[in-house]
Amino acid sequence: EEVTESDDEDNLSSVLHQRAKMPWRACGKYLSAAGILLLPLLVLSQLLKHTVMVAIDYCLACWTSDAISVKMELKLKNCSDCEVCNTSHSPYSKVFSILCCLGIVLCLVTSIAVEWTGLKVTKKLHSSLLNKIILAPMRFFETTPLGSILNRFSADCNTIDQHIPATLECLSRSTLLCVSALAVISYVTPMFLIALVPLAIMCYFIQKYFRVASRDLQQLDDSTQLPLLSHFSETVEGLTTIRAFRYEAKFRQKLLEYTDSNNIASLFLTAANRWLEEYIGACVVLIAAVTSITSCLYSKLSSGLVGLGLTYALMVSNYLNWMVRNLADMEIQLGAVKRINGLLKTEAENYEGLL
Predict the structure, then answer these.
(1) Are 339 and 156 in contact, with CB atoms under 8 Å apart?
(2) Phi and psi dihedrals of 273, rounded to 5?
(3) pLDDT, mean over the chain
(4) Rounded average pLDDT over 338-349
(5) Mind telling me which PANTHER family this protein's record contains (predicted)?
(6) CA geometry: angle at 119 spanning 24 and 336, to 5°?
(7) In the chain, what are the helix, strand and coil shares in percent, each to the nearest 5?
């Protein structure tokens, strides 16, 4: 019995270790199917877009600081010269307009690159899977259920076609926004770098355990939503039969039970997401606020840069929350690539004809 219990504990620990790991092979298979040209275009467009977004915010901060300093000088000199004020604002307005136009173009290029990548990956994986299934030996069809093959062509291909590109764009956007926010805070207040290392270590361990719990809660939410929708549709279709047998109370009670089960899963998922957002966000905002106020008092930091650093600190929690949630979604959706990749390893029969 002791040996059996130890084996069960080893199996459980190995299962938990596998659940905590990201499917990097499936991710590499998806990205390699995008091709040599699309992948650098996707990465470069994302980097340029977020660089321009940070530059727009930095330009606004410098513009605000300069405008406040000019007004203070005019007030001290008892002068109300409008021409001086207008000439000081003209360079900032031109730079701001150029950066905004460039940001709009880069947003369009990024969206096109993401959709194009998803379309190319889907077509390549679908054609490869179709060729493998057509040339598969007969023992493959005798040992593999037909529903499993149909799910690979329907549900998994639909996930790769529609869900993975959108999740990939959201994941890259939230990750780069979080990194750019931390970079801006570190640039505005270099003292923030002292607390960044322990904060990064803490975030790593928190997301490592939170990602597994978030993925399980999301799967529980999806699994409890399906019986609710099925019961509701069956009740609507058989409403006359239910009224004839006077089973309204029974079906109403069943519907309430399914609704409660789904609400419990949704409540735990929402509470977990809010916990991550508030816990990490409070730490980042506290450290950024203390360092900004200290730098402003002792090194005469401009008010615009202080406001920029605090604004990014307030947004880090939201970015980090979406990054972890998108990472959990991506981990679930990459299971479709993993299952299709498993079928692509099927040995084909020797066939010399043309497809």
Answers:
(1) yes
(2) -65, -40
(3) 79
(4) 83
(5) ATP-BINDING CASSETTE SUB-FAMILY C, ATP-BINDING CASSETTE SUB-FAMILY C MEMBER 8
(6) 40
(7) 90, 0, 10
Hey, what long-range contacts does 335-338 have (CB within 8 A, 24 or more apart)?
A: 335/23, 335/26, 336/155, 336/156, 336/157, 336/159, 336/160, 336/164, 337/23, 337/26, 337/27, 337/29, 337/30, 337/125, 337/156, 337/160, 337/164, 338/23, 338/25, 338/26
Assess contact for 34 and 121: CB atoms under 8 A.
Answer: yes
**SS3 (DSSP) at 22:** coil
The predicted-structure confidence for 10-54, as pLDDT tens digits, reads as follows: 444 444 444 545 667 777 788 788 777 777 888 888 889 989 998
Closest by CA to 118, choosing from 30, 52, 185, is 30
- Distance set, CA 138 to CA 11, 90, 145, 224, 342 (Å): 35, 75, 12, 38, 18
In order, the DSSP letters of 149-182 are: HHHIIIIIHHIIIIIHHHHHHHHHHHHHHHHHHH
Is residue 307 within 8 Å of residue 64, measured between CB atoms? yes
Domains, the chain, ranges and CATH?
Answer: 26-79+89-344 (1.20.1560.10)
- Per-residue tokens: 57: 């915010």
> Is 143 exposed, middle or buried (CB count within 10 Å of its CB: 0-12, 13-18, 19+)?
exposed
Tokens of 292: 């900004």
CA triple 67-71-75, angle to 5 deg: 170
Region of 340 please: left (phi>0), alpha (psi -120 to 50) or beta.
alpha
Query: Which is nearest to 202 in space by CA: 280, 142, 281?
Result: 280
Place of tokens 């549709």: 233
C-alpha count within 13 angstroms, C-beta hemisphere, residue 13: 6
Matching residue, tokens 């008892």: 78
